[in-house]
Prior knowledge:
Order of helices and strands: HHHEHEHEHEHEHEHEHEHH
Bound molecules: flavin-adenine dinucleotide
Helix content: 40-55%
Distance between the termini: 33 Å
Oligomer: single chain
Strand content: 5-15%
Amino acid sequence: MLRQPLLESPGPVALLDRAIVRTLPVVPRSVVRKISDRYIAGTEVADACRVVKGLNAQGKMATIDVLGEEISSRREALGIVRAYHDVFEAIEREHLDSNVSVKLTALGLNLAYELCRKNIETVVRHAAESGNFVRIDMEDSSCTTETLQLYRELREAGLDNVGVVLQAYLRRTIRDIRELAPYRPNVRLCKGIYVEPPLIAFQEFEEVRQNFVRSLQELLRLGSYVGIATHDKFLISEGLRLVQEQGLTSEQYEFQMLLGVSPHAGDRLIRDGHRLRVYVPFGRQWYAYSLRRLQENPKIAGYIASDTLNRLFGADGT
Ligand SMILES: Cc1cc2nc3c(=O)[nH]c(=O)nc-3n(C[C@H](O)[C@H](O)[C@H](O)COP(=O)(O)OP(=O)(O)OC[C@H]3O[C@@H](n4cnc5c(N)ncnc54)[C@H](O)[C@@H]3O)c2cc1C
């Protein structure tokens, strides 16, 4: 299934951009690869380590994601489990300040719940051995209930080095926060990237923002550790206001951003004494992730156009 991003945005989105977003799936993979390079560390664990080292040198933490949501067999899911083992080893060996992010579909959620449960437990236990932490990404709404169920099962099995993601565009999120309250969950809060129907998801940009702020308030009230994952200037300043209102120290929350997106806003947060974690994906299955990032890049038309011109005329316009 092609998962498309939310198209609403605060400003006027150029018609050309919208048109290009719709045609992205037919853009040749080689072009998608080239223009999405900034969002992905590379194909190998060594590439991720190199990028994380650079981020750490700038005072930024990282979370490494092994790209693999396109898997279709148990064997491939096991391959992803092994890839995470390699990542933990590399993090330890190279003394990197990084945890990991995991998509449950990459561990087999769409193949069998029990298989996925076994795989995620293996990854979380391996992380625990080296004092590391696993963030379970949130995917489209067909996965939400099972993802939260698996999170609860891991916590009930005594595993505390695991956190989950909640999406502000989902109408259910405030209810989910209340239901998760007994676990005082470690949560990454983001807007949400998949296209969801109005029945279950806010469609308007401002509604999503409002629910983000409300969800953040609820989580902080619970005493949850929150990763405030956004590049939206309004939400960053609301996040800063709320953590200050709660009197939190800089160890009690963090901001999170995606590799290749708004690095200067990240630098400012670091300069002002806040913690920032950058999401660093790597792997051979880069296509679905790249499409999502390109589809929400407000300047996508320009990138595609200049790449097309470069290919037509052989110029290097960068
Ligand atoms: C660390 C992290 C982890 C995430 N994990 C998940 C997850 O598990 N599940 C999920 O559904 N979503 C996840 N997301 C994606 C998130 O839901 C949003 O789709 C994404 O962050 C864009 O929303 P925004 O809050 O930055 O606001 P927006 O209003 O979309 O963006 C604000 C500004 O950021 C810049 N920007 C945003 N995206 C791009 C881009 N791709 N290229 C260039 N500029 C850009 C633009 O200047 C834009 O105006 C994650 C995001 C982050 C930062």
